[in-house]
Amino acid sequence: MKIGEIISNLRKDRKWSQTDLAEKTGISQVMVGKYERGDAAPSIDVAKNIADSFEVTLDYLVGDTTSISFDKKTLKRLEDLQAMDEGRRNTLFDLMDTYIRDSKTRQAYDS
């Protein structure tokens, strides 16, 4: 997916108009339209402002990742988790694995 499609999808998911996005990023509505149509590409600084407005990573915005969009709170939590001592980190991973396994089991039985 190209950056224009991603911007458009993120904007529509949030039910923002092009004007809303323009106001949040300090760019013109005309430029938002050009980015979405692929008529222009945002500079790095503008792309960063757009990513920050949507609370996604720059990698996600430019289509450089195949993973789901992580909001900045989730990324901060992952950074904090990585900074923990190994014992606590492993305990949290065990807990997360338990919840993930239980969720997948419930989904399998609900299908």
Question: What can you see in these coordinates?
Answer:
72% of the residues lie in helices and 0% in strands. It has helices at residues 3-13, 18-25, 29-37, 44-54, 58-61, 72-83, 86-110. α1 (3-13) packs across α3 and α2 (18-25) packs across α3. The radius of gyration is 18 Å and the shape is elongated. The protein starts with a helix and ends with a helix.
Structure at a glance:
The chain has helices spanning 3-13, 18-25, 29-37, 44-54, 58-61, 72-83, 86-110. It is mainly α and 111 residues long. The two termini are 30 Å apart.
**Sheet/helix structural class:** mainly alpha
First-last Cα distance: 30 Å
- The succession of helices and strands, N to C, reads HHHHHHH
The major pleated sheet works out as: none
Roughly what percent helix? over 70%
CATH homologous superfamily title of the largest domain: lambda repressor-like DNA-binding domains
Beta-strand residue fraction: under 5%
Question: Keywords, please?
Answer:
434 Repressor (Amino-terminal Domain); single chain; 2 domains; 111 residues
List the helices and strands and how they pair.
Blueprint: H1 3-13, H2 18-25, H3 29-37, H4 44-54, H5 58-61, H6 72-83, H7 86-110
